[in-house]
């Protein structure tokens, strides 16, 4: 047999090659077939969100898998694509993350596990398993203290890149080879983050630094808490100990710091206060020292952080030196010297400047005790001892006295990884005779540190020196020891990102276990590099100029902590096996607590939370939240709901059941008969955070039987309509199917209501005011537009109403009225004649039948009987005018009554008893208009002394209603009372005394009549130009008479309103009625014509706004809205309501409200002043001369254009509704005679006294700067060449702090006219400050400046003006050793 070599170089028979090739072909065909089948198989699109990291939560993994893929294979594919170890994470449904995760080992197909194929997206969430983050495939588990942290993993990164400026961002953040291990996750770093409570990043940075300090952590672990001596909640060392244990052993990504802050005595508000991290360090160390008294750790802070320095002064003549030893916990290094344009470039440079002595000479000479005279001397600081842990504070926060603002210095300052402090130590012979003296109180450690530079809080007499101390060593040792032992190693950089107003802290810390740098940014911990540390130097790459700080990065180092390099003292972190016994117990306790928390989370994950409703027999509709485990049965859930709704003792449990409910549509979807033992998780469709439906706990009486609710049914509320009584009954609930026909639906309603199906009319209200008659017998409910919850009206009678078209039928009119009628509560004025019981019910011709909805006509009759008497007088007064008007109307067309019956929607429900009332209504309207004409005639005759021409009017100022009425234009619209000074017409001939004791007078004077003679065309303006619509058309006929809609009144009960029932009226009215018609319907109840009262709408906060648009309907009103009626003449066409304010330029509050009045189009300014002055005399007690007052434009609080007497409103002066105007009292006759003149308000600034003078007005004939300076020179006696001026800023009176005015304003602008930039003084009222350029500012000490700043801030705040420098009110940082701040007993 011939042999051929195989692939393994072995010889096989030649026939074997044939069979081998054949088998390979079959295998390939099989594989191709499988591929083809897979291509034809439905595929499942899975979109997976990785929620295990803050950096990956916005990323999505997409997998398109065959539907036959198993769940276990899904886990494998996700693990491969995400770079995780399979089995270290869970997958849960994205829309229901509370459900149990998918089974790792399940062999179920995706198509059988709830996944939808065919291109539909299936959202999943990748979550932590058992509270631990998923492991990266090549990552080795690590602890915080292990030295084997692996930084070589290079798995593919699938998360988003951090933003620029993120804490600890390094160059590799934007690198294409950025690995997943760089993401902030615990499994890679082994470290735990701290949760930011709100603004506690400064606290988190310090805590992580202390945790990463081996000597501090180990000492804290060695301290043992005695529970018998102190409450653990308020023990700061114990809570720090717990926190450090959790940071070292917890499996969480981040832990809370609330227990630590609670031990500080802080409440939740402290979490929203950001403080300085260096300040916190000092305060916390002080608190720990207090807590550690009488313990081994009593001197721990001093041993680790305290250093010593000498504060000395040396005489340059005799060499005598006076000195004092001070201690320090940190060294504050100046970034930029005061007044310098350049910053120090490095920490070494700043340290050298720190110890650089200054020479005291000239007036600053030092009095030498040895020389007994003032001599030149040298003053400075010398370091004597550096602490084991050296803290450097870079003083980046400063105060700019030029701008009076707090600023941050972002200048570049480098710092080394290893800092040699030997050049800064004192090596002079301190024992020489010349230097063995001290200050008067100069014992060692006696005094405080240097007041300008040091931040010392701790000094003790029995200091145990750690580190390098030179006080007790020989001169040789002082020289040699620092060189070998004064090298410090950087291990913590606390970084501040932001401005002086606020920002964010985070810490870059080097682990002493492996030398790796980490960024601790609140809950995120990540590895960083030396490049990241260098990025915290601050500044920019350019030269260090004066403005370099303004353009530099705001992220830079703020505090540096170095550790002395001393192998004999450098400690390592305590390993878990070396923990003291009390720490091991604490670790076990915290572990059990985490396990309990994990179990509780598991319970929460399996708890269904759904909204629960119940129609309680006593408490009506109740709402609650039902929380039930998914494995609880429906029977158990019903019992829980029974107790939750407090039904025990009200109904029995057997009379309750849970049904599926839709609250929005008030729809009972289905009941659960026979499913009492079904688990709630299955019944509700799984555990979800929210459900698209609710549950209703339904109750019944013992003799009743629950009706089954089947899926697919619809709920119908059936209202039975009675055409005879014109009533609509309360709804009856009926359930139907969407596929039922109208005929079947009528049979269903007939069974429920007892009505006849043959004569039944069914009307569906599909939406608001959309009425549809269901008349096609075989049409289904679905085709007619039925939905889950529906409302229908049914009527079944033998009347002929069904023979007419539906829109013309009485049924349609009744339903239309029902849908458009609203219920209003109207508060009538006290001044209206008689109480409600004495007023008449007045109705329009062709109006409403006034049949109440409940069908009771007794109510109507009683109201008419009660109110009939009070209108007799009005009827008799107007009988003649009524007859004349009726004759005119009959001669031209049909009567109003006939018109109404022809066109009214309610002709079929007209009550015969209303005819007399309708006529009386017309009588009243005509009578009131006739009275108004009589008043006008009397006013124009000029016979104001005739008592018959005087009528009552209501005059109430704002101060009577609201004493602190603001002057804003918004507040001016909120009219809580009438300010009108207009005539209030009444039927009685004599003057009527009003409630406020004021006699009336007529505003229609002869001046106004004469002013409009020959100018009648000025009144014929468009209605939109006026502040209101006219109540009358061009023919003088009331517009309200054009159409009459439903209007019915009834007395108000105490239940209806908090108002006095005697003053309140309940009005049922069609909201399509216009305001004009509504007012005319109210005339009999108010007792005056509609032109003599105003309507105010009351809002929820009891603010009132006047409704003035008479042509607008009441469509914006809704049920139970409140309306207040106030007496006072309503506006006519061409009239405007105007608020008058007094301008007081030299008062603290320059704007004071005076009165409300009415200006008319075509009236001159002088005419308006003539009418205004009597009102001011009567209401404001201001007796003014017309030639000593002026009116001027008011814009917010700014005085503007001066109005001249001959100006005409709407011709020369634009006027609008709710207009506001200033009235200014003059000390001399008006100087403004022409519009070409300019009135400027000037104020002198005196730098020598730091005071501003009063305002003085200057009238300019032109816009010339030269003329302005000449005028100012005249009134101030400042030589023209020395006079400087500047325009004020902001709103009048342009207040500014006296500390800012000298340099902040643009003094002496280089322009020749006032109407160009930067002045733009083009109108009256501009404010100009001026000064003498030769006057030097007053010299202020620092204390005087601070005191003046406080006074100015207080003054400007009281006047409501902006304070330029208003530093953020920072709460003092305190740690309370007794558990909390002492509360003021006077406070709640």
UniProtKB/TrEMBL annotation:
- Stored PROSITE patterns: USP_1, USP_2, USP_3
SUPFAM superfamilies on file: Cysteine proteinases (SSF54001), Ubiquitin-like (SSF54236)
- Where is there biased composition of kind Basic and acidic residues? 947-963
A GO cellular component annotation here is: nucleus
> What ranges does the record give for the region Disordered, renumbered to this chain?
131-170, 429-453, 875-922, 936-1036
Q: What InterPro entries does the entry give?
A: Papain-like_cys_pep_sf, Peptidase_C19, Peptidase_C19_UCH, Ubiquitin-like_dom, Ubiquitin-like_domsf, USP, USP47_C, USP_CS
- Annotated USP domain ranges read 192-565
PANTHER family per record: UBIQUITIN CARBOXYL-TERMINAL HYDROLASE, UBIQUITIN CARBOXYL-TERMINAL HYDROLASE 47
Q: What is this protein called?
A: Ubiquitin carboxyl-terminal hydrolase 47
Tell me what organism the protein belongs to: Dicentrarchus labrax
Q: Gene name on record?
A: usp47
